[in-house]
Amino acid sequence: MATKVTILPNGPALIAGDLEVIGVDGKPIQLPTPQMAICRCGASKSKPFCDGSHRPAGFKDPTPTA
């Protein structure tokens, strides 16, 4: 399965596919599904994973400048 990254508006980055996540201890982190949500807002209590904190934090995607 190819790996796909989808940036959700005002939310996390969804990553799906053949994934292997290695923790800071060098050991693999077992994922419950072949998809994970990565925090983009910085407010998650379970970084690097999204815990939904972007909603109460009011995270908004940066407006691109041209």
Topology (SSEs and partners):
Layout (H helix, E strand, L loop, with lengths): L3 E4 L5 E4 L4 E2 L5 E2 L5 E4 L15 H4 L9
Antiparallel strand pairs: 1-2, 2-5, 3-4
Gist of the model:
By secondary structure, the protein is mainly beta. It contains 1 helix and 5 strands.
Gross morphology: globular
Number of domains: 1
For this structure, what is the CATH class? Answer: Alpha Beta
How much beta, percentage-wise?
15-25%
Radius of gyration from the CA trace? 13 Å
Low-confidence stretches: none
Question: Which descriptors apply to this entry?
Answer:
1 helix; mainly beta; 5 strands; 66 residues
Describe it for me?
This protein is mainly β. The chain has a single domain, classed as Ribosomal Protein L9, domain 1 (3-Layer(aba) Sandwich). It is 6% helix and 24% strand. A hairpin with a 5-residue loop joins strand 3 and strand 4 (28-29). The model has no long low-confidence stretch (mean pLDDT 92).
